[in-house]
Design goal:
The structure is a single chain. The protein is an alpha+beta fold and 182 residues long. It has one domain. It contains five helices and five strands.
């Protein structure tokens, strides 16, 4: 084994445990915004801006895993209502006029540093190892004032759909790719 040197000496010991951000409403600060113009959405990276969990994602792990504290807001035609609500929440929270700018062109970089209320929930997913795990997700955006008033609903855990059970008696499960039809 190689000598680990000063990096080992300065490393903080880890037991593999971590603190999970509880589901709930938070005041967040937008840290980065990337326009995915080909898919028509903004990828918004945030951190918790106040309260007990202020700076929750500012540690080394959070910096290395921005997707863990990121949400998207689509500006496709069918999602414009939700995008408008997102911009209204930012405007109300910061005294800005992004909603008015959206019609003629919004510079997404101007959103960096702005505050917004986020509602965090959890959902199940299948890991690369085939394990059912949980991850956080932004389920809604609100104004900072709405979060401070408690004007939001904390969502229940979003569970994966139950796998199909065995076929009823007299039937068998068939792979659709193996059907003998032409």
């Amino acid at each position: 084994m190689k000598a680990l040197g000063n990096e080992y000496e300065n490393a903080k010991a880890s037991t593999g445990e971590f603190t999970r951000l509880p589901a709930g409403g938070y005041i967040a600060e937008i840290k980065a915004v990337e326009d995915k113009a080909d898919k028509e959405y903004l990828a918004i990276t945030f951190d918790i801006a106040s309260g007990e969990f202020k700076g929750f994602y500012s540690d080394e792990w959070g910096q290395a895993h921005p997707y863990a504290h990121q949400f998207v807001r689509s500006y496709k035609d069918k999602a414009l209502g939700m995008f408008k609500g997102f911009l209204q929440a930012i405007d109300k929270s910061n005294g800005t006029k992004f909603e008015a700018q959206a019609k003629t062109g919004l510079n997404e970089r101007d959103l960096v540093g702005k505050r917004i209320g986020v509602v965090i929930g959890y959902e199940e997913y299948n890991s690369d190892r085939g394990e059912v795990r949980e991850r956080s997700r932004v389920t809604a955006t609100r104004s900072v004032e709405a979060i401070e008033r408690g004007d939001f609903k904390v969502p229940e855990l979003k569970k994966l759909a139950a796998p199909a059970g065995p076929a009823p008696e007299g039937f068998e499960n068939i792979n659709p790719d193996e059907l003998p039809f032409f």
